[in-house]
Amino acid sequence: xxxxxxxxxxxxxxxxxxxxxxxxxxxxxxxxxxxxxxxxxxxxxxxxxxxxxxxxxxxxxxxxxxxxxxxxxxxxxxxxxxxxxxxxxxxxxxxxxxxxxxxxxxxxxxxxxxxxxxxxxxxxxxxxxxxxxxxxxxxxxxxxxxxxxxxxxxxxxxxxxxxxxxxxxxxxxxxxxxxxxxxxxxxxxxxxxxxxxxxxxxxxxxxxxxxxxxxxxxxxxxxxxxxxxxxxxxxxxxxxxxxxxxxxxxxxxxxxxxxxxxxxxxxxxxxxxxxxxxxxxxxxxxxxxxxxxxxxxxxxxxxxxxxxxxxxxxxxxxxxxxxxxxxxxxxxxxxxxxxxxxxxxxxxxxxxxxxxxxxxxxxxxxxxxxxxxxxxxxxxxxxxxxxxxxxxxxxxxxxxxxxxxxxxxxxxxxxxxxxxxxxxxxxxxxxxxxxxxxxxxxxxxxxxxxxxxxxxxxx
Length: 459
Description:
Blueprint: H1 2-24, H2 29-81, H3 85-99, E1 102-107, E2 115-116, H4 123-134, E3 139-142, E4 149-156, E5 159-166, H5 175-215, H6 229-275, H7 285-314, E6 322-325, H8 326-339, E7 343-350, E8 355-358, H9 360-375, E9 380-387, E10 391-398, H10 426-436, E11 440-445, E12 451-458
Parallel strand pairs: 2-3, 7-9
Antiparallel strand pairs: 1-5, 3-4, 4-5, 6-8, 9-10, 10-12, 11-12
Helix pairs in contact: 2-3, 2-4, 2-5, 5-6, 6-7, 8-9, 9-10
């Protein structure tokens, strides 16, 4: 029971955290990408500011304030050692000239305030601390009385020593300037990153819009690949998918139209045969046998056509891909051809252990359809294969009459049959399966004088 309670508490915490994150984080991809880029940039600038402020600026500030406190302390010691008015005047003028300061002794006055005015940065604290350590009398540092100057007041036994120094003697650079530089550079880099990210997101939005329109049945023009490499690949993949789906729909529409066209002929013959049957009188069975035989032939023809249509429409998408050895695939096809009396052989297979990844039954069907088509037009068939850089090429050569160049593309369409009684779906089914594997199938002139069917599959 305790374990269940802990599990429920953990699940509730996760749900609450996810709900809070959904409310805080931006919903758009652009907003999240900008957030991902802005947070590290802001953290980097903050770290660099802390490193500068906490190390370099503080070290330099301590050294400058220490030098100033030492100069004032030495001057006070000289004034105490030589108390005459002439010596004091000379000491103040000489020390001020050598140190670049303006020193004035206001005799009889007393110091009204102690400490210092606070300003941005560590310089005020460093100077106050060093003066307290070096000077044994009360001091006050006024950072705001004079423009770009610092007024240091020291209470002495005879009066107040006023030291006026340029602020740049103690301040390396205004802290706000560094903060502005860090913030400005961060903002500039953020705007540049936002511009580039906006272009990337725009390409994704176009892809999403095209996919939505295509899903609604509103066919669009192919997407122009743009943006990053991954987005370009996604756009190219979408264009290929769009072409395959359009081709799939076109082929299935053609099949439906062909079914009504091709089945009409045997159905008409059956109707005529039934209409010519004698309706009255005694009819001998042997007199009806020719008509019955013709009708059975029409039914067999219809079954053959329907089987071809179903095979074309069914596809091979449910089969699991596996590694197929090309030579084994060729040996099965060659053995099947030799059983029906065809002259078939295996040519070159380079390398000998060449293998491909695909659906074995579907590829066997492709090869059987191709070699069966070649068997009706040739007396010799040779199967070969070779490996390319990223593809595997399968060749089916025959010594037939070949195919005219104008018909090399149309023979892969549905119902394009070159023999009597054929459905014209064999090569159409083959092309459909090869395209589903991400490959290509084509016709060209072969080395045996006939046609060569080239099947290109991904390695």
